[in-house]
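Need residues for this backbone.
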C-alpha cells in the first residue's frame, strides 16, 4: 500500500541522512517469462535545482521514463516533469509551491498526451500542534475531487482525520494514529468508503542500530488480509531495502532496492518480482513512476 511504501521511503531517507533518491546501471534484460519489474533512478543536486531521471522496465520489456526538476528560489519551489509511456505518449506536469509564514500553497497542472489538462490546488496550514491540509483536483471534464486532512501532535502520538469527496458528492473518511515508544513506531488506520465498507491497517517499525524492520497487515471489508514485511539497512553511504507482500490468495510480491549516495548524487536500483498467484496476474498492479520532489510542509 502507498502509506506503507511512503514510511519505507522515509526510513531510507532518514538512514541516508537526508539524501535525495536515485540510481545504478542494470544490464540484465527481462524476458517475456520474467515476472520482474526493474527500476533505475538518478537524482542529482546542482545548486538550487534537483534533477531526477527514472526508467521502469516491466516484465514484457516495455519501458516508462520520467524526468523532473525542482528549483528553489527563496520561499518558492517550482517543479517541472515529463512522463513518457511505452507507446511514446508524454504527460507533462508543472507546479509552484510557496511558503508564507505557517502556510504552504501549491498550484499545479498535468497535461496528457491528448492535450487535456487537470489542475490541483493544495494548502497546508500549521496552527500550534495541528497541521491542516485542504486540496482540490479538477479534471479535464471540469469534475472536482476535494479533500481535507488534519494531523494533531500530542506528545508521542500523532492522530489524523481525513475526508475525500468525489464529483458526485459522495464522501470517504479515513483516520490513523501513529505512536512512538522508544525505538518502535506503531501505526493503525482505517478508511471507510461511501458505501460504508472499511479497510483497516496496522504496522510497526522498529529501529535497531543501522536497521529498521517493518511488519504490517491490511484487512479488507471481506475480512481477507494481506501481510507485508521489510528490512532497511544502512552500510556507510548505501541503504538496502528488502521486502515482501503476501496477498490473501497466497501470492507474494518481493522487492529489493539499494540507494547509494556519492556527493550530491544518490543512485537507486530496484527490482520487483512476483511469485505464486501474484505472478499469474492476481497480485498488486504495477505502479507507474511519477516525477516527485520533496514538498516543503509545515511540521507538527
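Answer:
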Amino acid at each position: 500500500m502507498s502509506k506503507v511504501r511512503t514510511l519505507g521511503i522515509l526510513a531510507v531517507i532518514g538512514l541516508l541522512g537526508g539524501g535525495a533518491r536515485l540510481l545504478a546501471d542494470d544490464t540484465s534484460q527481462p524476458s517475456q517469462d520474467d515476472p520482474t519489474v526493474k527500476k533505475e533512478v538518478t537524482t542529482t543536486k546542482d545548486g538550487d535545482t534537483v534533477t531526477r531521471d527514472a526508467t521502469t522496465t516491466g516484465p514484457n520489456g516495455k519501458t516508462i521514463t520520467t524526468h523532473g526538476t525542482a528549483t528553489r528560489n527563496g520561499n518558492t519551489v517550482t517543479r517541472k516533469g515529463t512522463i513518457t509511456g511505452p507507446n511514446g505518449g508524454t504527460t507533462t506536469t508543472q507546479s509552484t509551491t510557496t511558503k508564507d509564514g505557517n502556510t504552504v500553497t501549491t498550484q499545479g497542472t498535468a497535461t496528457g498526451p491528448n492535450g487535456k489538462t487537470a489542475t490541483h490546488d493544495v494548502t497546508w496550514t500549521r496552527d500550534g500542534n495541528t497541521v491542516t491540509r485542504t486540496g482540490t483536483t479538477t479534471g479535464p471534464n471540469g469534475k472536482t475531487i476535494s479533500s481535507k486532512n488534519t494531523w494533531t501532535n500530542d506528545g508521542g502520538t500523532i492522530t489524523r482525520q481525513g475526508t475525500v469527496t468525489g464529483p458526485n458528492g459522495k464522501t470517504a473518511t479515513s483516520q490513523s494514529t501513529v505512536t512512538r515508544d522508544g525505538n518502535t513506531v506503531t501505526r493503525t488506520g482505517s478508511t471507510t468508503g461511501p458505501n460504508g465498507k472499511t479497510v483497516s491497517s496496522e504496522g510497526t517499525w522498529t529501529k535497531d542500530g543501522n536497521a529498521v524492520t517493518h511488519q504490517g497487515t491490511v484487512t479488507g471489508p471481506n475480512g481477507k488480509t494481506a501481510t507485508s514485511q521489510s528490512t532497511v539497512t544502512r552500510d556507510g553511504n548505501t541503504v538496502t531495502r528488502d521486502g515482501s507482500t503476501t496477498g490473501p490468495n497466497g501470492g507474494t510480491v518481493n522487492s529489493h532496492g539499494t540507494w547509494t549516495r556519492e556527493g550530491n548524487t544518490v543512485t537507486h536500483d530496484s527490482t520487483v518480482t512476483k511469485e505464486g498467484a501474484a505472478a499469474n496476474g492476481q497480485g498488486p498492479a504495477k505502479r507507474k513512476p511519477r516525477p516527485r520532489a520533496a514538498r516543503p510542509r509545515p511540521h507538527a
